[in-house]
Amino acid sequence: MQSTEQVRRPDTASHTIIHRLRVASGDVGTIGIVDGATLLEWIHTAGHAVARQWSGRRCVTAHIGNLHLDRPIRAGELVDLHASVVYTGRTSMHVLVTVYSRDPLRAKTLQTAQCPIIFVALDDDGSPMGVE
After folding, report:
1. What does the mean pLDDT of the chain come to?
2. How far apart are alpha carbons 119 and 97 in whole angstroms?
3. Average pLDDT over residues 97-115
4. Range of 116's domain?
5. Is the pLDDT assigned to residue 2 strictly greater than 60?
6. Are 62 and 44 in contact (CB under 8 A)?
7. What's the CATH number where 78 sits?
């Protein structure tokens, strides 16, 4: 049974967050670039943070879309993960995470990856609840 209760969005809720990090040597695989699993973990963390912030509730992942990778990320690069709520359904939030990276010795930041994720807000009993 689905709850019909609505989430009251906090006044300070934002539809966008940015996570910033520097890629450590432990973040890369044997060929010297960030592997897909590590990148997906970063993307999911940023997406979950904005969904939780937007809804003010606990959220679960309902779907992770295709991860489109434009270029590899190497150790030492600076990475920005921009997570934005792009659509809100009755109980779901569609989040787009865009990853930008750059070598700290260069000024130009390039889009590195993009991935859509759908999250569902949960009530205290673990049932989906409205976020409209």
Report:
1. 88
2. 13
3. 92
4. 16-122
5. no
6. no
7. 3.10.129.10
Number of domains in the chain: 1
Cα gap 51→42, rounded to integer Å: 14
Any idea what the Cα angle at residue 72 is, between residues 69 and 76, rounded to 5°?
135
CA distance 57 to 96: 19
Q: How many CB atoms lie within 10 A of CB 77?
A: 22
Is the residue at 58 inside a domain? yes
Helices (H), the chain: 36-55
pLDDT of residue 105: 87
- The number of angstroms, rounded, from the C-alpha of 83 to the middle of its chain's C-alpha atoms is 5
Quick one: tokens of 20? 């910033």
Residue 107 has a pLDDT of: 72
pTM to 2 decimals? 0.86
Q: Which of 54, 38, 34, 130 is nearest to 96 (CA)?
A: 54
